Amino acid sequence: MVWAQSQTSLIKELGKNLSSGLSKDQVRSARLQFGKNVLISKKSAGRATILLRQFKTPMSLTLLVATILSFSFGEILNAIAILAIVILNVSIAYFQESKANTAILALRTLSVPRARVLREGQIHTIKSADIVPGDILQIEAGDYIVADARLFEASQLTANESTLTGESLPVGKKTGDLKEETILAERSNMLFGGTAISSGSGKAVVTAIGMQTEIGQIANLLNTTKETSTPLQIRLEKVSYKLLLICGILILIVAAIGILHNQDWFTIFMTAISLAVAAIPEGLPTIVSLALTLAVRRMTKRNALIRNMSAVETLGSTDIICTDKTGTLTTGEMRVREIFTLENKLILSENFKGTELIYQALILCNNASSENGGSGDTTELALLSLAEDHKVEVRKIRSESPRLYEWSFESIRKRMSVAVKNNGKIRIFCKGAPEALMPLCQLSLQQNTELEKTVLELSKKGRRILALAWKESTEQNFSHLSEVEVENHFEFLGLISIADPPKEDAVRAIRDCKTAGIKVVMMTGDHPVTAEAIAYEVGICEKGVSGHVMTGDLLNSLSKHELKIKVEKTTVFARVSPAHKLKIIEALQSNGHIVAMTGDGVNDAPALKRASIGVSMGKGGTEVARQASAMVLIDDNLSTILAAIEEGRAIFGNIKRTIQYLLSTNLAEMLIVLGSVSIGLPMPLNPISLLWLNLVTDGPPSLALAAEPVAKDFLQTSLGPSPDSFFDKKFMRELYIVAFLMIVISLSVYYLALKTSDPITGRSYVFNLLVYLCLFRSFSCRSENKTYFELAINPWHLASVLVPIGLQIGLSYFLFFQKIFQVRTISIGENGILLLLAMIPVTLVELIKILKRKRKRTLTTKDLLH
User: How far is CA 265 from CA 254, 420, 691, in A?
Assistant: First the structure.
């Protein structure tokens, strides 16, 4: 634990000379022992491995079996069609996986190409990869740190570690020893690779490089973190396995029936292939891919870049969002929030009407510059921003009041002072911690009590608080005066509260998340007080509710079982490390939650990868976070996630209803064939008829259903989908009812036709009737709760029904098609009767929707009356 070692023993252990640095021989020896200062990623899967992996999915295996069977029995057209679908879906999955998951490459780019080190008594600028343990780093404001290092000299040194720890404020750095149990965010005597120096200067000895650094440990977490299957993948796998099982069982039944009826093997196998064609919705993967692709296009227009198509549906399934604080809920920039003066009391910064003295204190007792994008300490930049927001000319004030002397900020004094010349008079301004500056001011007991109360109130909000004071002086030469001689008898000016403010949309977005049934959890490396204050401000926490904050230290003390219980009641996790975030997400997932993780820093990358879906920031986020995530918010707007949730839930609904449509019609086709064979009737449809049936009824209507537009009030009226299966009770009940009606109507027509006419007529009736039944069924699948006439007209869906009906009616009038499908001409009158019969199932389903709504309204009215 290098942060806990004494400086003397550490230097002795490393065997280094702080005044001259390493020699060439020492560098060479260290290079042989520790290697290059680079991050190593695990070997990624080769192209052949990725390609083969796509063929191992249940749906691909199902379709390959159907392809082989079709080829075996001469159904070449059928086999080619199914194989084309397999190749299309495998290609899409292959290209997605090939270009994804490059987070480690982004981690490598974090290291600054060069660094200044002391070697053999000389300062050298070298490549960061050539840094070795024991090197002496020369640190200045604006530098990026290239390796982990222990400080042995520090002058007003602060570092921005938000991308590593989540701490929004610059962290003060100093020399000295710390306790072993000191957490990462509080190791003030250490500098970490990938962070930036905000202010000051210093020297540090490198203690870890490459994979041994804190960033290296995150890289290891990324290497070992497994990506979870999306809810959509899990559901489709279950559908595929069930279809495989059903196909196997039905083929065995057909074989058994064929043997009992003394049928030849060719007839048995032809019947089996017919059932396989009827059972498998060959186009389902393509339909799902199309639905997701359309959603991805819509999401891009709504400022969300989807890196993985399944991410849209996954976010729609989300019931918990774990969000980082800095840069996600907050702006990531320090701003003045409130100002307190003894005259005006506590007021918001936007309502502040400052005096000349206060603006002079803000601007003159300040070493930052707002020009050229700003430079200097973020707290001092926030003070300049306040002045500029109120149209105060910073450059003019500084030119009119030239600085004569500065007494720099020191961590012991906790304040800084400057002497300036203003209109021939000497003024001294001081700013610092309230507890350090207030005793130096001329305050009454009542004023002091009021100020202490205000400081306590603002501290509870997680604010960083500065006090301002001033006085006039007759002194002309300050170089011989110490701070003690100057910093006294001040007049108090006011208190300034500074914090990283919430983004404007954060409160609204979190409120809308709660309305949509989604819990929002904050995970941050920030101080618990600051984290809790922001959580209250944005609406994550509610006033009066206790026990909602957990620190990393407490998390470490919990067993896996205890964490699973505690995590359900906790809404804020503070002072947490990347490893903690992984534990939290895994605990939530083990409790059955679908977890989305938002973040923008290096420290968020492992959790973004492990979450059900990782969501990163496109503007302010790091490249590491973006590459580890599945979705990027282009505008860094949290409310964009709600748009994704809406799209995701809509996609889930569309896919679910499409599967309902496909399974109900395919189940009916299977059981009609099986029922006919079982009772000794001739085959009602040959394989080519089933292929045509699947082509016109599975394809166009399914595509139209999958692309159904999102209703305007969808997010408010929808409920989060089940994370386990499509097949809830309502789904199965409707499936059985529709399939049963289709079977009864078709077999009845077929049986009557065989009794009164001939097999050709029977097949002709069943062929047309099944096409009409399937196509009309799609009308009731456009919405789960609304009837067709309550929805806006979808021209694509209407065309997908009317065009195939027109083709089917005209089909039997051509001799060529009559021979292929073994049917005869069907008159307009006969088609009219068949069309009326085909409307029975869809009419019943639509009536059930109306009755359910009326029943629900009746129950709601009774509840209100009681």
Answer: 11, 105, 22
